[in-house]
Write a structure and sequence with these properties.
Blueprint: E1 23-28, E2 37-43, E3 46-50, H1 77-80, H2 107-115, E4 127-132, E5 135-141, E6 146-151, E7 160-161, E8 167-169, E9 172-178, E10 187-192
Antiparallel strand pairs: 1-2, 2-3, 4-5, 5-9, 6-7, 6-10, 8-9
Length: 193
C-alpha cells in the first residue's frame, strides 16, 4: 500500500546513512465507509505527519490474519529485483522496532510512539539462501539457536519446523534442504528457539 504515498517518502540511500531512516505508520479502520487506510511519515528531525488523504481499501474489519511475517516475500528472484517503471512492491531495506496495535492510533499517539525510547532489541540474523546442485542452502551467523521453518503459502500463515539441524562452525550456521524440479514452492524463515 506504500505505493499510494507521495513521491520521495521512502528514501533510497544504498549506504543506509542516518538521514535515510524513515518512520512509517499506517492506520486501518475497517469500520469506516471510505478512507480506511492512512499513511504517516516522519524523519529523525520531523514528527510524523499524515502523508495524504485516506485511501479506500475496502476489506472490512480484520478478524484474523494468521502469523505475521515481515520482510522480502517475493515468489521469485526476478520479482525481488524488478526495477521496471512500475517498480517492485518488494521491500528492500531494514525494518526496526516494528509495533502493531489493536486499535487505530490518533496522530498524537503515533508521534509519541515515534519519540518513545527504543525498545529492547530483537536479534534477527541476516541470512542467505542459494542453490547448490539439488539442495537449497540456508546460511546465517548467530551465537543463538534458531529453528528453520517453512510453509507452502503465506496466506495460510501455517509455519512448520523443518526436520534436521544446521551444521554449526563457530557462529556460522548452514542448513541443507533437498530440492528437485518437482519440489513444491516453499517459503522459509528463522524462528527463535
Amino acid at each position: 500500500m506504500v505505493v499510494n504515498s507521495a513521491t520521495g517518502q521512502i528514501t533510497a540511500d544504498a549506504d543506509a546513512a542516518p538521514e535515510n531512516w524513515v518512520f512509517f505508520a499506517v492506520t486501518y479502520d475497517g469500520t469506516q465507509p471510505a478512507g480506511k487506510a492512512q499513511f504517516y511519515f516522519g524523519t529523525p528531525d520531523q514528527a510524523a505527519l499524515s502523508d495524504s488523504n485516506p485511501v479506500d481499501y475496502p476489506r472490512g474489519a480484520v478478524e484474523g490474519c494468521g502469523h505475521l511475517t515481515l520482510g522480502n516475500v517475493a515468489r521469485s528472484m526476478t520479482g525481488r529485483e524488478d526495477t521496471c517503471p512500475a517498480g517492485s512492491r518488494v521491500f528492500r531495506g531494514l525494518l526496526d522496532e516494528v509495533a502493531i496495535f489493536g486499535r487505530v492510533l490518533e496522530l498524537e499517539e503515533i508521534q509519541a510512539t515515534q519519540r518513545a525510547p527504543a525498545r529492547r532489541a530483537v536479534f534477527a540474523p541476516v541470512w542467505t539462501a542459494h542453490r547448490e546442485g539439488n539442495e537449497l542452502v540456508l546460511e546465517w551467523d548467530s551465537a543463538r539457536p534458531f529453528q528453520v521453518q517453512e510453509c507452502t503459502t503465506l496466506d495460510a500463515g501455517r509455519w512448520s519446523n523443518v526436520r534436521g539441524n544446521p551444521v554449526v562452525d563457530c557462529f556460522r550456521h548452514t542448513f541443507h534442504r533437498p530440492i528437485s524440479p518437482t519440489t513444491p514452492q516453499r517459503y522459509y524463515r528463522l524462528a527463535s528457539d
